[in-house]
Amino acid sequence: MQQVNIRFTSSGYVVRIGSNLLPRVGQETRAIARSPRAAVITDAGVAAHYLDPLLASLRGAGLQAEAAVVPAGEASKSLTQAGELYDRLLRARLDRGSVVVALGGGVVTDLAGFVAATYMRGIAWVAVSTTLLGQVDASVGGKTAVDHPRCKNLIGAFHQPSLVLADVSTLATLPDEEFRTGLAEVVKHAVIRDAQLFGLLETRPDPILGRDPDALEDVVARNVKIKADVIMADPHESGLRRILNYGHTVGHALESAAIEGSGKLGGAPVTHGRAVALGMMAEARIALARGLIGSAPVERQRQVLKRFGLPVQLEASVDLERCLALMQHDKKALAGRLRFVLPEAIGAVRDVDDVAEDEIRQALLSLTSD
Amino acid sequence: MQQVNIRFTSSGYVVRIGSNLLPRVGQETRAIARSPRAAVITDAGVAAHYLDPLLASLRGAGLQAEAAVVPAGEASKSLTQAGELYDRLLRARLDRGSVVVALGGGVVTDLAGFVAATYMRGIAWVAVSTTLLGQVDASVGGKTAVDHPRCKNLIGAFHQPSLVLADVSTLATLPDEEFRTGLAEVVKHAVIRDAQLFGLLETRPDPILGRDPDALEDVVARNVKIKADVIMADPHESGLRRILNYGHTVGHALESAAIEGSGKLGGAPVTHGRAVALGMMAEARIALARGLIGSAPVERQRQVLKRFGLPVQLEASVDLERCLALMQHDKKALAGRLRFVLPEAIGAVRDVDDVAEDEIRQALLSLTSD
């Protein structure tokens, strides 16, 4: 028998955060492109506000830019929609040197990034992120995906964008509830990794809530740095990156259980941000009950979440046993132990895999009686 | 405005070439897996010969292995078939630590590699290659893909396998015409990069044609080394890797024109190998007419192709104008100049982009009057 060894090397990109970045997308994209054709993938909601200026910027830079507008909402993250987009890119004659520009929130960047990852075995893409959640989370890390009917994000690829633009000006038109969903991830980043950011959220929430551009630029940049540190240490999600799941083990199950039930969570319609806020509270209570963390930092987390309009109290109508069953199902489906990221202090977490079902139940119950 | 820079590092894998490697697939796969579940993706033709021993090897190594058998043939390289396979993997509860084992030729490794590249954003895969073309070409390089209805290999990803096993014993059951298709790529590798291999093909063709296991191991290993050198220097096909297209610029167009026409090429039903052999002859004649290469090496290439049962003469029934139009269409569709890899000697090629249509026409015409 004979054998041949095969080895490879590396890559990188830049995330820019600021106000009024849309007009420079054309020049930046032109610098990345190795062919004159580009395609913008966006959704109908975002297109109404930002598609025309973006196309003008691309065309002004000498690119032949066409737009593909998908319906707004998670349903567009499908293999069928991806199939239609391949067809659009082929008709627009995009080649290997062309660039896909994703304009929108996480649904659009996940979908467009996946299409860019798999069109002609991967072409360059630029993420122009227009939601707070996208700017602090979805657009950084190179995770792209579409959903399988029975499993969110099942079909995807790691495909780093060539450039990420987080234009905080676009947050001005973001609905309040979507803004809050982004804030839940901001609080998460602070708790897992950055006591100084947490202090800022605690002491100066008003400019953030008032969407002051300078305050948003500062907050988004700090969050991108936290996420960048974590993903650079663990680009393929095999270790450290797991800390980004803080609040999400319980949060995902709460989200599903509430959607199956009353459709409400913390007294309002379910959103990912509301579920994550309650997930963080539940996971902090598990840590508290174990003596991993004191009651003061847990209370500080609670106050910040409340200040940002996020729920910290769970209504009795949410079926906790169903929520526990969903977590167990995830565990069985994935042939592993259920892992939790638990806080030890503001700015520090620990990865544990021995949390008993009853500890989770008690933590959830404690949130219903607050 | 603020910015954050993001950077990453590297990876690698091994290709093993030898006889009777199937029984060791289980142990090798177990060593790669981080979970007890694995799935074999194969086609009905290959399954009849090799699926049972492969499953026995995987199960003997303690893996819970299930098989997904797709119909044999290029039609299985579709997004629809990929969609069905995601569903199979999810039902078999494959997780991020699981391994996909592709058992078959290029269609199977392209499809299974693409599914592995995109299931849960990429899980490990092992390529067990059972055709000569697969062993010397498709399974090395990490190119995975499915076809778009209007464009072969449009949808794909670069996803390196964790291990490639080229078991030359499986070539014993390969139909002659498929064996010849692999030989066309072997001759191509020799002409572009390895005069010593070319000398071996010229002076000792009988053990290869007789499928002597030692001769095949030697030939496959030499070809894997050539391809590995090229792809390591250019993993994402941005430069050197283009030399692997020798014979393919004309070959692809001839293949399509002949399929649209009589279905024959060089006096027998069209295969990729027959098209590539004629493509190499046409491209060598372009080089000869330009004075890039002498007539002696072109004649040596012709004799080796003939000895291996590959065509070197083109029937008048192939529509040469249609063939030229197909090449022009590719050029226009991809917004680039038509590039040719032309031989300068046995073992050395040059990349050129100024070949005029009439040079191609004359080269093709010369093959009809041989």
Describe, in short, the structure shown:
The structure is a homodimer of 370-residue chains. Chain A is built from 14 helices and 13 strands.
Describe this structure in words.
Two copies of one chain form a homodimer. Chain A is of the alpha/beta class and 370 residues long. Helices cover 49% and strands 20% of the residues of chain A. In chain A, the strands form four sheets. In chain A, strands 2-9-6-5-3-4 form a six-stranded parallel beta sheet, sandwiched between helices. In chain A, helix 6 (176-193) packs across helix 7 and helix 10 (248-260) crosses helix 13 (320-333). Chain A starts with a strand and ends with a helix. The mean pLDDT of chain A is 93. The interface between A and B is large, with 68 and 68 residues. Strand 2 (12-18) of chain A pairs antiparallel with strand 1 of chain B.
Topology (SSEs and partners):
Two copies of one chain form a homodimer.
Chain A: E1 2-7, E2 12-18, H1 25-32, E3 37-43, H2 44-60, E4 64-70, H3 79-91, E5 99-104, H4 106-118, E6 124-129, H5 132-138, E7 143-148, E8 151-158, E9 163-167, H6 176-193, H7 195-203, H8 205-209, H9 213-233, H10 248-260, E10 264-265, E11 268-269, H11 272-289, H12 295-307, H13 320-333, E12 340-345, E13 348-352, H14 357-368
Parallel strand pairs in A: 2-9, 3-4, 3-5, 5-6, 6-9
Antiparallel strand pairs in A: 7-8, 10-11, 12-13
Helix pairs in contact in A: 1-2, 3-4, 5-6, 5-9, 6-7, 6-9, 6-11, 10-11, 10-13, 11-12, 11-14
